[in-house]
Batch of 2 targets.
Target 1
Amino acid sequence: MCNCRVETEARLMKAIPEQLPDGHRNLRVSLTGYALMMGEGGAQSRQVMPIAITYEAPNRAGAMKDKKQSMSMMANYCMFCGEKYEKTTDPQ
Ligand SMILES: [Zn+2]
């Protein structure tokens, strides 16, 4: 498993202060869009793509109502280095 998440966050921690105002403090940088999954080698941080779903559906009275749903799709490869993620077991 690669260390892209940790390494990228460390790079951002060095680069971002240059863009911040003097006197800033308590800087924290965290890449979002990851889910913790159980793999063969233990827990791994794996990238997920959020999916926004919107549609209209009729309510009981037959009037159309806006509906929203969200899901996410798991990546098979690291977007930074291209390494294939190891197989994970679905939490059940
Ligand atoms: Zn990677």
Target 2
Amino acid sequence: MDLKTAQPLLQLRGVSKRYGSFAAVDAIDLEIRQGEVFALLGPSGCGKSTTLRIIAGLEEPDEGLIRLRDKDIFSSVDNVLVPPQKRNMGMVFQSYAIWPHLNVMETVAYPLDIRRVSAADKAERARAAIRQVGLEGFEDRPSTNLSGGQQQRVALARALVYEPEILLLDEPFSNLDLRVREQMRVELKLLQRRLHIGVILVTHDQVEALTLSDRIAVMNAGRIEQIGTPVELYDSPRTAFVRDFIGAFARIRGVVKSTEGDFVTLGVANAGTVRGRLQANARLAPGDEALLAIRPEQVRLDTSDNALEARIDALLFTGDRYEAVLNCGGQRVETWLPRTVNGKPLREGDVITLDLPQNAATVWAR
Ligand SMILES: Nc1ncnc2c1ncn2[C@@H]1O[C@H](COP(=O)(O)OP(=O)(O)OP(=O)(O)O)[C@@H](O)[C@H]1O
Ligand SMILES: [Mg+2]
């Protein structure tokens, strides 16, 4: 299924939420498509949860329009506000709201009780939701006698049981340890692909956003910095904020010597010159201070016509490679290095040559 041509499931236009004079959400525009996992990614306090709560109907915006398929569910102009229970969205919060007096079956079936579903239908649908999250056999277990990962699955089953059109997840796995979190990530992706429902995922964890999402909106101080696929955001960050938030870059400071079309040549103090592609929105002229940024996995150890020498100050072993701190003409540069070069292990103190392929390096204004 081509997500690009899919009809919009949910649209937000100019949605703002202020607390006093502070804009927690500042005129954001979003469009989520049928069958898509869409992440709201950004640092603490940037307005992710507020946006999600606005979508769920738990928070009323000051301005804007929200449309679910072809129906307005909020409009400040037309005075529309559809209550949460009429929006057909399932929500899972960061801290699992599990009731101690209910077992798994009762917890999952609870939303159907509120919706007055018949007893037979209720049991069948609750069983199906429990199966979807891999908890069959746990139906009679008190919800509190479960591990964190299992409790989060119960919360997921409870959100799925009335077959919502959209699943809203606010940091659903942040209370789980790393291994369980990774496992839940894979299971959520498989479940979403099977059910083909829209998912809006709030996270401050870029790995979670990159691995799970079809598209990501990077948020900063109540605004959206950039929306794109994980590959677009990783390969072509449009702002310094997105560049610094997603993935790692090796960065080298320099001064512009010359520009030739899309390429810029930088002088790097005490190290030589190096060339890179001009970042899309950057305006640079000779003499300007600039920053060359390259993904660490693109840096090669080789001599070339676009290389700089550096000394290894520290090697931090991470299993498949080193994170390295280098000294490049007195400037500190951080990148990754392989465990060996031509069969020889790298050592701190070694002088190496960094080949920086010019098409992989972008030059930013500083
Ligand atoms: N009820 C409230 N009254 C006043 N300010 C609020 C209220 N709710 C949220 N805020 C503020 O709005 C901003 C956005 O909050 P929000 O909960 O959306 O952030 P977040 O991106 O989800 O952050 P985190 O990753 O820490 O959960 C924060 O600065 C927060 O302090
Ligand atoms: Mg939050």
